[in-house]
Amino acid sequence: MNEQEKKKLSKFLSLILRHQPELINLTLDENGWAYVEDLKLKSSHNKMYFTLEELDEVVETNNKKRFIFNEDKTKIRANQGHSIDIDLGLKPQKPPEFLYHGTALHNIDSILEKGIERRNRQHVHLSPDKETATKMGMRHGKPIILTIRTGKMFEDGVLFYLSENGVWLTDYVNVQYISK
């Protein structure tokens, strides 16, 4: 599988497992899991063909570790980033003192006025390092990296979760915890 094919399959999986499973009439359970065989079958009806080996390659090599299999590889799900109501079963955790949020320059005025909102996602995504946050911000234009005082947020009662792929999640980041 070449890089272009992997990217195409990864984007398809992101769409189906995070946002619109109904596009291929796929059923996700309450924790976001889909049966691999069901995914393959329903994808092929929609002219998207892949083997279990190709699916495994995308899961294993995705640089953002967006997807995960269950132990016996009969089910697959996205690690985070859902716009549909999914319970990932994550337990609240104490975050590091600081985390980072990458955004585009054109979003900064709104963020500094309203805070960081989850918008159409289930959570706000925060990165453990500036490099990852920069990559996230670059997706939408010139990146701006914000430092989030997550230790103080946690002290103040805000809940945090750590996804399987190392992305920190919370519901909202108030302006008082954000610095440029």
From TrEMBL:
It holds the Pfam family PTS_2-RNA. Keywords: NAD, Transferase. It comes from the Bacteria. GO terms for molecular function: NAD+ poly-ADP-ribosyltransferase activity; tRNA 2'-phosphotransferase activity. GO terms for biological process: tRNA splicing, via endonucleolytic cleavage and ligation. InterPro entries: Ptrans_KptA/Tpt1, RNA_2'-PTrans_C, RNA_2'-PTrans_KptA, RNA_2'-PTrans_N. SUPFAM superfamilies: ADP-ribosylation. Its EC number is 2.7.1.-. NCBIfam families: PRK00819.1-4. Belongs to the KptA/TPT1 family. Removes the 2'-phosphate from RNA via an intermediate in which the phosphate is ADP-ribosylated by NAD followed by a presumed transesterification to release the RNA and generate ADP-ribose 1''-2''-cyclic phosphate (APPR>P). May function as an ADP-ribosylase. This is Probable RNA 2'-phosphotransferase. The gene is kptA.
